[in-house]
Structure formats: structure tokens, C-alpha cells
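Side project, low priority. Logging it here so it doesn't get lost.
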Amino acid sequence: MKARLDLAKSRGCDGVEPDNVDGFINSTGFPLTATTQLDYGRFLAREARARGLAIGLKNNVDQVVALEPDYDFAVNEQCNQYSECGAYAAFTKSGKPVFNAEYLSKWVTDATSRASLCAASKAANIRTLVLPLALDGSFRYSCD
């Protein structure tokens, strides 16, 4: 991971967003615990910052509160769909941005549902995009 962070820095990145940092709640084949996951998350944050990179926490909803002090922003996928957006108040109350992507077709085809989604996102101070699950660029709706 240090080499990957070095690569990001050498390519001119301002920050990184490591994906799948919630292995302790998934079947990985490794004996990961919540404690080892926290240690790894904090390691990533220290190493990113040592290189002058901002770092974003992605989808590790169970550890948002514990890791917020170590991270600069958060990224989530489908926090509205899975009723997880409230967890990110730890970031927004600290003035840190939260970026969210939603993929449900109702938010594409039903303007009323999309308006409701966007109102909830704005109330929670979460920046939300509605995107195609295939991420093929066929549409993009921003709640901002």
C-alpha cells in the first residue's frame, strides 16, 4: 500500500480513496477483526498524510465515528438506499465533505423520488449523485 500511495503522489494526486476497507464484516478468508480493521484504516491515513495526500473513508459505515478524526472526507455508495447516511454526521459535523452515489432506477425515472432523495441529502449535508450502476456515463444527476 505504501508503494500505491507513492504512485498516487508521483502522478500528482491530491488525495486517495482506498476501497473495500471494511473487510472485517465480509468473508475474506483472513482472520480480520474490527480492531485489525481500525489499525489498518489508521495506517492508511498516516501513510497518506505522510505523503501530503488527503484520504477518504469509503463505505466502512461501522467504523465511521472511530475513523473520522483520521480521515479528510468520506465516500459512500447507496447510503440512502441502505439507510446509512446518518452515520456520516460524524464527518459533516466536523466540516468534512461526504460524497455519495446512488444507483436505484427510481431516482432516474421518477423526478418526485429524486427530489425527495436530493432534499434528504441536502438536509444531511451530503453531496449526492445519481449514476448508472454500470458507470457508463449514460446519465448523471446531481443533487447540487
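Brief comment: Residues 1-59 form one domain.
Revisit when time allows.
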